[in-house]
Design goal:
This protein has 14 helices and no strands. With 394 residues, the chain is an all-alpha fold. It has one domain: MFS general substrate transporter like domains (Growth Hormone, Chain: A, Up-down Bundle). Helix 2 packs antiparallel against helix 9. The longest helix is centred in the middle third of the chain and has 36 residues. The two termini are 34 Å apart.
Length: 394
């Protein structure tokens, strides 16, 4: 029999699955919209993807603070409902601006949802079990991201443009029902204002987790607006368009499946090496995968590269999320809002800049340059941590 705490953690994972499925289900239809329907540039493709984060980023901290004041459940339910409504609008897009507007609405839902759901985990789990709980939550995140491209591509090519997005809305509504019926609102803790001061160790931990997730999640962001059209045009020219779209969906899903499968293993590894070292390992693996993309010449190579990228994203996501949550002594919603502000800033700003850079220099040069950036970042943060330990007061 599942105890109440385990039930809450499982439901948070289901909610995360619903939200992330909607983020990545657009990957395959987006490649079709860009290549065939709208014939847009790399920049417009990236703008459609980034509209999600343009709306969500400024709402993360206010959403987190609001959840500290009125509770977690109202923000979780409200965010999911807005998310579901926006998803239904996607198939009715007639021009690229329609897609941008719909992604803005979807991003607004995410902006009030994610700080509240992760603050709920932080508030209901003990310090010692936080990493395990976050790994279960991340399994939901990874599963949603993994199934989105493959299921989206399959439903799109087998049925029509409506099916992937109606399924996305259905998942979100199921999550709303589960939260409304089975997740109690955590009792608010009395806050000692004298303890609200953020110590140097806490600030360093939050800063490190935010920097790593900003640049690390940029790898996942680049894969949809830049990698998907790049692979379809330059590496799969001999295949029909439906075949290219399906293969791209499988490649992206393979990357995110590795992200999901390795979460429990990373949770155990994190107990031995610590949150920061796990995060840096993930950053290094992501850099290695981006470097390999620079040399890629055949579709089969992309599946192996996707495994490396998936492992890297899984490690840095779990490491930074746990590190940030352990830094939240009080006002968990606000701290998680800060974390997700940088998370979505990376998802939005990086692909937008990289889309423009791809128009100028080509995707391959972009992959090479981003790999070098991640390697340098690993070294800089590692050296900083040696001289100023960030776990001192966590």
């Amino acid at each position: 029999m599942v105890d109440r705490l385990s039930r809450v953690i499982i439901i948070t994972a289901i909610c995360a699955f619903s939200a992330q499925f909607g983020v990545t289900v657009i990957a395959t239809p987006l490649a079709w919209w860009v290549v065939e329907e709208f014939e847009t540039t790399w920049f417009v493709s990236s703008l459609i993807f980034s509209a999600f984060t343009i709306a969500s980023t400024p709402l993360e901290i206010p959403g987190g603070i609001l959840s500290d004041r009125i509770g977690r459940r109202p923000l979780i339910v409200g965010g999911l409902l807005l998310y579901a409504g926006a998803s239904v609008l996607f198939p009715f897009a007639r021009v690229a601006s329609d897609l941008i507007f719909t992604r803005l609405l979807q991003g607004a839902g995410a902006g009030i949802f994610f700080p509240a759901i992760t603050a709920l985990i932080t508030e209901t789990t003990s310090y010692e079990n936080r990493g395990h709980a976050m790994s279960i939550y991340n399994i939901g995140v990874g599963a949603g991201m993994a199934l989105g491209p493959a299921v989206g591509g399959l439903l799109f090519t087998r049925y029509n443009i409506f099916m992937p997005f109606f399924l996305c809305a259905g998942f979100a509504l199921v999550s709303v029902i589960l939260v409304s019926l089975l997740v109690p609102e955590p009792g608010h803790k009395a806050i000692d204002r004298a303890k609200l001061q953020v110590t140097g160790g806490n600030r360093s931990a939050i800063m490190a987790s935010c920097i790593i997730i900003f640049f690390g999640i940029g790898v996942a962001a680049i894969m949809t607006p830049v990698f998907a059209p790049f692979a379809a045009k330059e590496l799969m020219g001999s295949l029909s368009l439906p075949e290219r779209l399906e293969i791209i969906g499988y490649i992206l899903s393979a990357m995110l499946a590795v992200f999901t499968i390795l979460q429990m293993l990373f949770s155990k590894l994190m107990k031995h090496v610590g949150e920061l070292n796990l995060s840096l390992l993930g950053l290094f693996l992501c850099g290695s995968g981006m470097l390999a993309l620079y040399f890629a010449t055949a579709p089969v190579e992309l599946f192996m590269i996707s495994a490396v990228l998936g492992a890297g994203l899984g490690a840095l996501s779990l490491g930074t999320l746990t590190l940030a949550s352990k830094s939240a002594k009080t006002e968990e919603g606000k701290v998680m809002g800060i974390y997700y502000t940088l998370f979505y800033a990376g998802l939005g700003a990086i692909p937008l800049f990289c889309g423009w850079l791809s128009d100028v220099s080509g995707p391959r040069i972009l992959f090479l340059g981003y790999a070098m950036l991640l390697f340098v970042l690993c070294v800089v943060i590692w050296i900083y941590a040696l001289f100023r330990p960030i776990f001192r007061s966590i």
